[in-house]
Amino acid sequence: MKIYSEDAYHLLHRLGATANYTGFSYLVRALQLCAEEPERLLLVTKWLYPDVAKQYGTNWKAVERNIRTVGRVIWNSNRPLLEDLARRELSQKPCTAQLLAILHASLLPSGSSTDEE
Hints:
One of its GO terms (molecular function) is DNA binding. This protein is mainly alpha-helical. The protein has a single domain (1-105), classed as Orthogonal Bundle (Arc Repressor Mutant, subunit A). Helix content is 68%, strand content 0%. It has helices at 2-14, 22-36, 44-56, 60-77, 79-86, 96-107. Helix 1 packs across helix 2 (22-36). The longest helix is centred in the middle third of the chain and has 18 residues, at 60-77.
């Protein structure tokens, strides 16, 4: 799990996000939880955000809001890299669940993701 955390930190830094945002830690933890159980991406507000919130002593709405803030920073700082990770042009900023899915897929070991195209 530590290696995954380091990879997530590195990726977020490359995207322009820094640890001074509360959502940075929330996003790393959410990605760790998704690595353990990818199905969490299907129920972010009912399963993923509450689990992150529990760890940090906050509520799921604060988790979502702070991850959204980091998503906005990423969108404004390094949109080309985000589009490379998404493997497509993004016409608008992805919602938090989409951002999590893009980052999660990009952190999977090579050969672990399957293209459905």
